């Protein structure tokens, strides 16, 4: 049986198709490319039931991933993270079916490992020797580490304010590391130039087509873990939006395969009040966002002033009757403490933002008491030692006796 049912790449704006055997970046019209699969044939050859006996990693869905030869798979066991019932937090928010998909338990400590595993594997398959990327930290560490395992060279450019731990991970992996006094958008400009000058492969968010496919597996796993019965709402902390685009793509593919039925979950994009371009666009009913000036938030992974795939994120929200909502840093800190105290989960600020948004949406009645809601915690709190706020009074309790 074929390892992958990938058929081609296509441009969601102008429709041009490309093959998956060569290196591709954006479409010539400047749009991110998406991956298509031969789902009709796959439907005849695979049932959802057959997945049960497979390895607990995202490669269990290899037919729906773009890597064509299993020899090229670069894996550290990523995927199949737990879907945890949050009954204590749920009770406090007056919700009966609240779940957390916990991406803190994954190599490199954030869900960026999914995009890196699939993106690096496919880069290797199409003959990439050296890649470059801008990052807010987590993607850079994941791609640098997976590149090291794959034997690819990498160059990573990140804002000097990005979490220090990610800088260390990149440096230890042997990648070329550059720091910029600016935002990820400034890092992106530097990478863009380096890519041209030195003929590197540009692995920036959505400039290569396969990171989405890795992140898509979150959607596949949520469906499988809920026994192919889709939740009512999925809530996602949105920066570049790749995870949300990926989850939406996964759910549509599952529907075409006939593995899930009924309406798709309402998809919610959560941003920070300090950087909310998608929320603003959604509130104004627009199909694209505008650059958000002077953005800042302690949830570094969602500090993206203008996402290349904004139109795809908005499309996913509109098509599922979802919404976009911004939460402030104070409510992020509040929710981080709630999750630790009520559920024993030390989540990253982006993950805390997810549950701060769920709390608000429940209060407003947008989420109903008995609805099944899955919130994404995109990484471990342990990766953000600097941004965790603990009052001196609480720390006193830990004094030596
Ligand atoms: C990158 C990142 C996000 C945002 O992911 P996108 O898919 O780019 O929107 C959220 N949380 C964490 C921890 C991240 O590193
Ligand atoms: Zn195009």
UniProtKB/TrEMBL annotation:
Gene Ontology terms describing biological process: isoleucine biosynthetic process; L-serine catabolic process; L-threonine catabolic process
Gene Ontology terms, MF aspect: L-serine ammonia-lyase activity; threonine deaminase activity
Lyase keyword on record: yes
Domain Tryptophan synthase beta chain-like PALP intervals: 74-379
Name of a matching Pfam family: PALP
Cofactor(s) the record lists: pyridoxal 5'-phosphate
Entry keyword set: Lyase, Pyridoxal phosphate
Membrane-crossing residue ranges in chain numbering: none
Coiled-coil intervals, chain numbering: none
Domain of life the protein comes from: Bacteria
NCBIfam families per UniProt: PRK08197.1
Protein name: Threonine synthase
Species this protein is from: Salinibacillus kushneri
């Amino acid at each position: 049986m074929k390892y992958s049912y990938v058929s081609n790449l296509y441009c969601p704006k102008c429709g041009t198709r490309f093959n998956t055997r060569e290196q591709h970046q954006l479409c010539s019209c400047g749009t991110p490319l998406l991956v298509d699969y031969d789902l009709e044939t796959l439907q005849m050859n695979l049932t959802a039931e057959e997945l049960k006996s497979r390895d607990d990693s995202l490669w269990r869905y290899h037919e729906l991933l773009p890597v064509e030869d299993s020899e090229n798979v670069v894996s550290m066991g990523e995927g199949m993270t737990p879907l945890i019932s949050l009954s204590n937090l749920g009770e406090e928010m007056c919700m009966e079916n609240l779940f957390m998909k916990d991406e803190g338990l994954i190599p490199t400590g954030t869900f960026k490992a999914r995009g890196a595993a699939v993106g690096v594997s496919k880069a290797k398959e199409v003959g990439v020797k050296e890649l470059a990327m801008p990052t807010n930290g987590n993607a850079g560490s994941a791609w640098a580490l997976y590149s090291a395992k794959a034997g690819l060279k990498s160059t990573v450019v990140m804002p000097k304010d990005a979490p220090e731990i990610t800088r260390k991970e990149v440096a230890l992996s042997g990648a070329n590391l550059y720091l910029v006094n600016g935002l990820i958008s400034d890092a992106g400009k530097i990478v863009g130039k380096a890519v041209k000058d030195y003929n590197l492969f540009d692995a920036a968010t959505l400039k290569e087509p396969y990171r989405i496919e890795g992140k898509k597996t979150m959607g596949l796993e949520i469906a499988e873990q809920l026994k192919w019965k889709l939740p009512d709402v999925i809530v996602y902390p949105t920066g570049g939006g790749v995870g949300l685009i990926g989850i939406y793509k996964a759910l549509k593919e599952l529907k075409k395969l006939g593995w899930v039925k009924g309406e798709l979950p309402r998809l919610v994009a959560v941003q920070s009040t300090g950087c909310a371009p998608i929320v603003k666009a959604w509130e104004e009913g627009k199909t694209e966002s505008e650059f958000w000036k002077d953005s800042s938030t302690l949830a570094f992974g969602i500090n993206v002033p203008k996402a290349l795939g904004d139109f795809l994120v908005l499309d996913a929200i509109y098509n599922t009757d979802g919404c976009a909502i911004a939460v402030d840093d104070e409510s992020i800190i509040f929710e981080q403490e709630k999750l630790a105290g009520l559920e024993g989960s030390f989540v990253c600020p982006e993950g805390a933002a997810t549950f701060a948004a769920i709390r608000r949406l429940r209060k407003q009645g947008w989420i109903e008491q008995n609805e099944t809601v899955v919130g994404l915690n995109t990484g471990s709190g342990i990766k953000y030692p600097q941004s965790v706020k603990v009052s001196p009074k609480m720390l006193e309790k830990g004094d030596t006796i």
